[in-house]
Amino acid sequence: MIEFLRSLVGIGADNLNPGQMALRAVLTFVVAVIIVRLGHKRLFGKGTAFDLVVAIMFGSVMSRAITNTLGLLAIWLAGFVLVMLHRLMAALAYRLDWFGPLVKGHPVLLVKDGQADPAALRDAHISRMDLDQALHETGSENDLSRVRLAYLERDGTISVIPRHEGPRILEVSLDKDVQVVRIAVE
């Protein structure tokens, strides 16, 4: 029975036939989904370079299970170890303040109180057009004076915190002896 299963998935074969590769693809897909579910949702979400590296490595390892004639379990175990390593490092980054920036990076302040930091933009390779695009995506104008803070986040996105100016108050007096009326203009 074990020999039949080995031949069915092509373990130890010189070459894999299309049926063996298709069966390996199905099995590897199921195993990969199980492994990824044991990891974090952010592994394949919009994450940091740390998340991206693990995702690429996981995909590379799991693809070998489809095309390689070696043992499937060893390859699946390698994929499992990668995902668990990601989970461990994410847990350490959560618990140790100094470890998170080490593996995930840190945000970079690009704009403060309406003033762009040219050195930060240059170091982050962010052009003024990139910054304008981030402003558009947040619904802001290209007017930096309306930006309180803008950061290049650890995942590579630019977040913009607009300047919240209170309503402008107009004082209107109709007559010298009449009470002043205040009008808030937003």
From TrEMBL:
Keywords, sorted A to Z: Cell membrane, Membrane, Transmembrane, Transmembrane helix
GO CC terms of this entry: plasma membrane
Stretches assigned to the YetF C-terminal domain: 97-165
Keyword Hydrolase (UniProt): no
Transmembrane segments: 20-38, 73-94
Topology in the lipid bilayer: Multi-pass membrane protein
InterPro entries: DUF421 (IPR007353), UPF0702_alpha/beta_dom_sf (IPR023090)
Subcellular location(s) of the protein: Cell membrane
Main location: membrane
Any single Pfam family the record assigns to this protein: DUF421
Keyword field contains Membrane: yes
Annotated signal peptide: none
Assigned protein family: Belongs to the UPF0702 family.
Name used for this protein in its record: Uncharacterized membrane protein YcaP, DUF421 family
Taxonomic source organism: Micromonospora coriariae
